[in-house]
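Task: sequence in, structure out. Protein: TVP38/TMEM64 family membrane protein.
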Amino acid sequence: MPRNLGESTIDRMPTFLKMLALVAGALAIPIIPFVIWGHDLQQAAESWQQTYTSPAVMAIGLFGLLAFDVFLPVPSSLVNTIAGAKLGILVGSLVCFAGLTVGAALGFGLAKMAGPAIKKRWLEDGDATTLRQFADTWGVATLVITRPLPILAEAAVVLLGVQGLAWRKFWAPVLLANSGIAVAYAAFGQVASDQEWLVIALGISAGFPLLLTYFARKWLQKKHQENPL
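Result:
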């Protein structure tokens, strides 16, 4: 059946992409002030680093920011880079890996518990079925692809948790992706600190995930065209 000429872009999007966009939009709301006043981010980061000089306190603070990333407007790529710069690649990687993993598990677990109520309240039977099919078919790949992406990482975890993706399908991709992200950013942060270009590194850390988001969006659209749900 041909689509109506007046049909909006959102109406033409596959169900999973529409839901992912809605969840990502909700999670992005607290970040709006940070986008508006983004030029103050570096000053705030420097002040925070000067306040917490103890490596133990720094590690605990960075872990907490990453662990509660799903609830807080935290630019995790910047946090990971700072961890490498201030704690070194080994400790920084461990702190980042632990924080990212706890944060993902927390968001996923809470979403799984709330899933039945959310689907009953907000989703029609047809949408719930297509989202479940997507979770079963592409859930693992989506977790890996979105892990390094701002907002989409948390949105994918929450949405797949709501759809009831099994824990056994959750752990492997998340642990694998988080380990790579933690080591890469911590190494980047340590090198930048040693070479005294940390400010530039923080700018790259903020911009690079946005580029990855563009390519991930293209990948998701392609997969939905190949296997529309």
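The mean pLDDT is 76.
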